[in-house]
Automatic annotation (TrEMBL):
InterPro entries (alphabetical): Aldolase_TIM (IPR013785), Class_II_FBP_aldolase (IPR050246), FBA_II (IPR000771)
Cofactors demanded by this protein: Zn(2+)
Domain of life: Bacteria
Keywords: Lyase
Nuclease recorded as keyword: no
GO molecular function: fructose-bisphosphate aldolase activity
UniProt EC number: 4.1.2.13
Root EC class: lyase
Protein name: Class II fructose-bisphosphate aldolase
Length: 286
């Protein structure tokens, strides 16, 4: 099955109320691992790249990794640029072949955000690509983007006007969620998701997914959160499994890098696969 659009993946998930993991990868090992998990679980998958990853690896190398690893893949997958406030990076990625982008203009006024998002949507459409939009910052810093200041939520009508004006394909509201690891259990505004979806049926992107409970995930997915972002969980899995393996290696004084890579890959595949089971996307391809 070829690489598909973000809309192709989320339309089914939104209609049938399951969540598709949108996982931020940061090197070749994590990219291959999450793709392998998707094939193993017969699950659609959204692969996300941060601006930081795009700049550190390079757009050409990163896209070449993507095309080579997805050639002949048996499940629907799509490539998404996460939280990007830089228009030039959006243009570069769309030109190169990214399937969708999140234009993060939440630091701007709603009026300017709306104006520029309309331009980004038009640009994406010329490439057959899709756009995720937001009008409120998600609390927390992720890959150098964002703020730890608690996000201010706009009135419902402001969000609906933004959706009507821009025609974005996915919307990421602030509902008390946050990037990174939660210090205390978050108090989420579940009803806000329902209110948005009832007034303007659009797939909702749940950011700050690492650390929510099974019950919170299920409730939000049932209300329309079809795209569930995961970043911190994969980073922690990668780093902690590497640390554990290296500590054991040091004790044995046997140094074999391929063994490290196999061990970390195994942990990453397991983590991604468990998310697909948890969100209900496993077994949806057949």
């Amino acid at each position: 099955m070829p690489v598909v659009s973000l809309k192709d993946i989320l339309s089914d998930a939104f209609a049938k109320r399951y969540g598709v993991p949108a996982i931020n990868v940061f090197n070749d090992l994590t990219l291959e691992a999450v793709l392998a998990a998707a094939v193993e679980k017969s699950s659609p998958l959204i692969v996300q790249t941060s601006v930081k990853t795009v700049k550190s690896i390079g757009v050409d190398v990163l896209y070449s990794m993507w095309t080579s690893m997805t050639a002949g893949i048996e499940v629907p997958v799509t490539l998404h640029l996460d939280h990007c406030p830089e228009r030039e990076v959006i243009t570069t990625c769309l030109d190169r072949g990214w399937n969708s982008v999140l234009f993060d203009a939440s630091h701007l006024s709603v009026e300017e955000n709306t104006r520029q998002t309309i331009e980004v949507v038009a640009e994406a459409r010329r490439h057959g690509a899709h756009v995720e939009g937001e009008i409120e910052s998600i609390t927390g810093v992720e890959d150098g983007i964002g703020s730890d200041t608690v996000a201010r939520r706009q009135d419902l009508q402001v969000a609906l006007d933004f959706l009507d004006a821009t025609g974005v394909d996915v919307f990421a509201p602030s509902i008390g969620n946050a990037h990174g690891t939660y210090a205390v259990a978050p108090q989420l505004d579940f009803q806000r998701v329902s209110d948005i979806v009832a007034a303007h049926p659009v797939p909702i992107a749940l950011h700050g997914g690492s650390g929510l409970s099974d019950e919170q995930f299920r409730d939000l997915i049932d209300r329309g959160c079809a795209k569930v972002n995961i970043s911190t969980a994969l980073k922690e899995t990668y780093m902690k499994s590497s640390l554990a393996f290296l500590q054991e290696t040091a004790a044995k004084d046997k140094w074999d890098p391929p063994s490290l890579f196999r061990s970390v890959r195994h942990e990453a595949v397991d983590m991604a696969g468990s998310l697909m089971e948890q969100f209900g996307s496993a077994g949806r391809v057949g």
